[in-house]
User: What shape does this take?
Amino acid sequence: MSLFAKALFENLHVRDVSAAEGKITRVDSPKIVMEKKSVDFDTSMIRSPVSGRKANPTKKIYRDSSSELSPAAIERAFNMRYTIENDKFARGAYGKVDLAYDKMNKEKVVIKRIPKSTPIKMVQAEVKAGQIVGVHGDIATFHKYHDFGDHHVLIFQYIDGKDLFSYLEETGFSPMSENQARDIITSIVRALHHSHEKAIAHRDIKLENILLDSKGKAYLIDYGLCSFIEDGKKSREWCGSDNYIAPQIVRRESYCGKQADIFSLGVVAFALLFGVFPFECLRVNSRHSNDPSRPLPRLHVRFPTDVKLSLEAKDLLIGMLEDDADKRITMDEILKHEWIAGSDDEPILARASNE
Assistant: This one.
């Protein structure tokens, strides 16, 4: 960036960064903890992305081409095709995750097993989102769905790495360099932009739902709480994870899923750059969201002063963590933002996403 452009950016483009500066350090800031999905998520509002009608749990619209076979025959064929390498690979909020080898395609895959006791609409949403999103270089690819006797089986691309929470935990939650954090956030920005273009809001953006492969490449996973966006309609469901959840959801207001995703990604970016969360009150108030005596205060970003960060990065964080959703930075603005786009002549969406 030229000196003139930098001066122009610093004087005209940057939001009120100086007002957001607080005399706090990382020690004073909320520590990063592992989060679980919201326990009071209302699945009744998930709608079909095609018709706009509520999803029909009995309609077999998500089965693969083998669905004409009996469940027992499907399971036998499944067991012949896949060799389970690790049946304790991971455990999700609604089921277990196995690492397996696909003998047909000669590659490792992740097999997500979800018990039939799980609300069917959540399974339908994740499968349908996987089908709509398709193959994208910044999203773990959904391969196939099977319906077994007592559980659902979803098969995904295997990412050889770890989630961002585990990565930060291993580093003692030390702040990342801006370059490393920028690469990760840029990948998730591309993933969310693609999802939003397909009318899907993720609604559970958090460190645990972003994987880093062995080369440091980031991938977005887990569309189990996603919503299918309809023009002019907002959601009222409570969903997300405490420290990442948008203030509109905590206040039980109607909200736009896209705007909520941007706020949650802002929390992730803040956590990467500072090694702490930005707002303690989100966790506290989300646990008492139905108590009128505990209203969520208006959120103002305060940066720990013992971590050096560029003006451009702070400006983006303030835009993403804006309390007022209508004033929050949009995805298009993020794509063009100086901290993301930089001085590269090639647009962010045109760059190779698996570089």
Summary: Residues 56-157 form a domain with the Phosphorylase Kinase; domain 1 fold (CATH 3.30.200.20).
